[in-house]
Amino acid sequence: MSKTTKNRKLTEKKFDASKSYPVQEASRIVKAITFTKFDASVDLNIRLGVDPRKANQMVRGVATLPHGTGKKVRVLVLCTPDKEAEAKEAGADFVGLDEFIQKIEQGWLNIDVVITVPSVMGKVGKLGKILGPRNLMPNPKTGTVTTEVGKAVKEVKGGKIDFKVDKAGIIATSIGKVSFDAQKIFENANEVLSTIAKLKPASAKGTYFKSVTMSSTMSAGIKIDTKSILQ
């Protein structure tokens, strides 16, 4: 029996793919059905009943995961020289301006989050075509365009994530690692889901949470019972 077949059989014993589970139970199952040698990410895939083409139905926001993401977040701060020391002290991995704008234009993207100050947005704006599609473009709504760069760096390093609905009405986001205990996975998932629940656009009619799935990098998807989400 191949390893994949064996893992599939073990998975089938631990949960029923046709069933929906409360968030807390899904958080336990995802640990039980992940057989990777590496510390896999735990992800949520959330399909919302919104039309993202309409500006008043765009769902975008930030959540601070109580237990962080479990990932090392590489932060670039694009700022004026007077803000460089503050950014470095807060733990930014890369700090500067023109040289990094040039590097990004040449294809360098070894970063997870970009933070900048309002006064240089004119320069940073021209990176929109490169950073935008990768969800890396700084935005005042997510707190990544700010004069308080030190605070912003600490928040991002401490587990603040930002998310936005894609063209298909889906939000996909990482909420931790399989090595986290089930309670921590649950609390992180709950934080993201309750944040998204609060962001329901007034103009969105019908079912808001159409489907929610939890999975790890290599596991099957576990369907979440949407009634278990605090709406």
Q: Main sheet: which strands, in order across?
A: 1-10-9-2-8
User: What is the count of helical runs?
Assistant: 8
Gap from first CA to last CA: 45 Å
Structural class: alpha/beta
Could you give the order of the helices and strands? HEHEEEHEHEHHHEEHEE
Radius of gyration: 19 Å
What low-confidence regions span 5 or more consecutive residues with pLDDT below 50? Answer: none
Sheet bearing the most strands, described? 5 strands, mixed
Provide the β-strand percentage band.
15-25%
How many runs of DSSP E, i.e. beta strands?
10
Specify the helix fraction band.
25-40%
Name the shape in a single word. Answer: globular
User: Kindly state the mean pLDDT as a whole number?
Assistant: 92
Question: What's the structural blueprint in terms of helices and strands?
Answer:
Layout: H1 3-14, E1 20-21, H2 23-32, E2 41-48, E3 60-64, E4 75-78, H3 84-89, E5 94-96, H4 98-105, E6 113-116, H5 121-124, H6 128-131, H7 149-157, E7 160-164, E8 170-177, H8 182-198, E9 209-216, E10 222-224
Parallel strand pairs: 1-10, 4-5, 4-6
Antiparallel strand pairs: 2-8, 2-9, 3-7, 9-10
